[in-house]
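pasting for the record
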Amino acid sequence: MKTRHSAFALFSILLLLVFQSFPARAQYAEDALRFSSIGLGVGSRPLSMGGAYIGVADDYTAVFWNPAGLAQMRRLEFTGGIVSSNYKNDANFLKVTTSGKNSGTALDNLGFVFPFPTVRGSLVFALGYNRVTDFTSALSFNGFNDSSSILPWLYDSEQKYDIPFGVGLEDTLGRINVKKNVNQQGEVREGGSIGNWAFAGAIDVEKNLSFGLTINVLSGTYTYVRNFVEEDTKNYYLDPRLSVPIDNAYLKFKKFYYDSNVSSEITGVNAIFGMMYRYEDIARVGATIRTPSAIVVHETFTDEGSSVFDDGYVPTFQGKTYTHHLNDSYNDYGVQTPWVLGLGGSYSPIDGLLFAADVEYTDWTQIAWIDNADLEKENISLKKNFRPTTNLAVGGEFEIPRTDFRVRAGYAYKPSAFEGDPSSYNQKIITTGAGVLLQNNVMFDMGVAIGSMKTFHNNYGSKALGLSRTNETISTTHITFTVSYRF
């Protein structure tokens, strides 16, 4: 028997396929949730207070947290900030733990606030850009699967779209015999973000009572890259013969590569209504209604498969090797996001000390596919994946006496939107930060948020089957810096 270390036998043939899927690529509940979710918010000060800002909202970031808070502003303001995101995923796959990491730095916000002179009360407008959702993530896994392979899940009766057939791992009767006993390894990276151009205004309708409105025009991108490899590391498919019939090519199977790429362009629009009541300089109460967003997604995707065989074996069919080259495919669809209701308050018992708390309710069962007739048929089953959730946030700020420094801390709790997820899948976020006032005009703030949660993914098959499942422990770190100038 020839060994795998023969000089010419390791990679004797590479059969390539660029696979074009059906006109409507399968969308999942995760896709709908991804484009419906809102991140940690905007601004260093709100972040460092745990996101408990509905009842504070006294700077430009009110356009995101509670536009009614803009009515508190009496001076022109220019604000800009950046955010750095770090993502770590410790994935347990078939009793082997592998870490995946990803990071990115981007503009967090850039905005202007314009108070207008009034005889009584307040009239304030604001506009700017805010980065509201970050898709940065990573997943790495590597383990031996003695019970399943991805190949049977890539089968399609139309050979034109059939990856196993295209790479010589499916026989002429449509049978796939590599079904288990393969080492599976993968790398997944996600990137991109959603930002919005915000146009906001607020007015005092009574003494200490204000209403506000923000119109958001959303735009963004999303990228997904997965490199998946199956390999016969334990020689289950090593046949000693130099040649085997085409319908038994699997006996010479060595390695299968499967690469997936998705690139999406995202647009949409929504609105935020806000109310705030202020009781002297002691307490504030705010409420917000975030309307559903009509998200439009234009998606480009490509799947590629290739195979490697043992001992120089070249599978042929009618004298030709299995090689297919197809172009990228496109998919357009829409997502309608849920209504989001928020309530928050702040309390200042003494000068220089501030406490704040928020609750935010979202009924995720309201998520729906739109603008795609095939997907809209799945809306009933889509709703069954989700449940209502209530986010909680608390935070505080302390101004150090006889200095221009302020220190802050907070905590946020965000339950998983998926029906049936245990409490360990809920996101917990600890925050801290500080600010310094320079020359009464310039405010420099920084915030840090450290989050943790658990989740899982299936590389193929259903959630119930769990044929190739990664159980993941995720930790995130977000660091923001913001500079504000008031004049």
